[in-house]
Amino acid sequence: MNQPDEVVKQYLKAIEARDADAFAALFAADAVGYHPLFDGPVRGRDAIRAGEQAVFDAFSDVAVTARSLLGDGSRYAIEVVLTAVNTGPLDMGGGEPLPATGRTIELPATWWLELGEDGLIVEARDYLDTATLMRQLGLGDV
């Protein structure tokens, strides 16, 4: 069983390391993930891993600065600033992936995690401003 605060630390560490396997290992087999870059909810550990790997493939030099953390042991809200370099195609769903721009992003985001009784994440929600992301990538407003 994972300790709740340890799950949050491992979550941030896996994102910075761009380690989709370590990331997915934090989730329950039937977990659900929501991310504005995904076309609808992602269901199940394997699908969450695949979706996150696609994001990791699109960005390198990832750094996460946690600005604030609120939690009660089973639910957490993590305010972060995410910096990364867009070095691979970015699939926004519904068409051709956007080509890599080589640009650096610095994006505020909030991540919401809900843990099950076994300490694994059962639901994750990412909130970020995709219009700001597109502007920082030099792709205009979406």
Physical arrangement of strands within the biggest beta sheet? 2-1-6-5-4-3
Helix content: 25-40%
Mean pLDDT: 92
Q: Report the biggest beta sheet as strand number plus sense, adding barrel if it closes.
A: 6 strands, mixed
The topology string of helices and strands comes to HHEEHEEEEH
Number of helix segments?
A: 4
- Helix/strand-derived category reads alpha+beta
Rg, please?
Answer: 15 Å
CATH C-level: Alpha Beta
Query: Could you say what the CATH topology is called?
Result: Nuclear Transport Factor 2, Chain: A
- CATH hierarchy: architecture: Roll
Strand content: 35-45%
Low-confidence stretches: none
Count structural domains: 1
Number of strands: 6
Question: In whole angstroms, how far apart are the ends?
Answer: 42 Å
Q: What keywords describe this structure?
A:
single chain; 142 residues; alpha+beta; Nuclear Transport Factor 2, Chain: A; 6-stranded mixed β-sheet; globular
Write a structural description.
The protein is α+β, with helices and mostly antiparallel strands and 142 residues long. It has a single domain, classed as Nuclear Transport Factor 2, Chain: A (Roll), CATH 3.10.450. Helices cover 29% and strands 39% of the residues. The protein is built from 4 helices and 6 strands. The protein has helices spanning 4-17, 20-25, 45-58, 130-136, and strands spanning 27-34, 42-43, 59-71, 75-86, 104-115, 121-128. It has a 6-stranded mixed β-sheet with strand order 2-1-6-5-4-3. Strand 1 (27-34) and strand 2 form a beta hairpin. The protein is globular and about 40 Å long. The chain starts with a helix and ends in a 6-residue tail after the last helix. The mean pLDDT is 92.
